[in-house]
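Issue: ligand-bound run for protoporphyrin IX containing FE - logging full I/O for the record.

Environment: standard queue, default settings, no custom constraints.

Inputs:
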Amino acid sequence: MKGVVFTEFLELVEDKFGLEMVDAIIQASDLESGGAYTAVGTYKFVEMVSLLTALSERTQLSIDELLYVYAQHFFKVIETSYAALLNSYTDPLELLASIEDHIHVEVRKIYPDSQLPTFKTINKTNQSLILDYHSSRAMYSFGLCLMHETFTYFGFDSKVRFQKLKSDGTHVRFFIEKGHGNRKR
Ligand code: HEM
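Outputs:
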């Protein structure tokens, strides 16, 4: 997992819960890296799981809730650092249907060792999309939030439901509907 994911995560924890919480979860997790991350480094996913678990225990928020909140923050990073990529689309459904063949392809060019999920389009219309998520990391809640944020970014309401095709969350089917446009970009 890329260092930028860790550095931004710890920044979010500091913003929401304070620096003491950052120290506490690093102390509580047995981290190979010692908790010193650089944005361009690559670290084991188990370190993220340890940090999330330690934070979950201290906040009473579930891992899925924490991943959702984290993705709200991560989308702001995307908006700042990858604006051109976002703005090569005008329709959120088109963007979501293109993560696999375009968006994450570009991400892999920047970070060749990134660990990305697989998205497969099952069905697409002008108003809806059925998308299958596959990843050993089971970060579907992170994906759910990035979908909501994508619609908001383009000024659309949305309705996203999902169904776990595997109970551990490594294979999840998303049913995505585009709602009304509420502003022009
Ligand atoms: C992971 C970039 C859009 C779903 C990631 C990672 C990066 C990234 C850097 C971390 C990779 C690693 O740690 O090795 C981007 C950029 C985007 C974008 C630049 C837009 C311009 C989206 C959207 C979704 C999405 C719209 C919505 C479904 C995910 C998920 C992961 C991920 C679920 C977590 C890894 C996993 O589940 O295995 N993305 N992403 N991404 N991205 Fe994207």
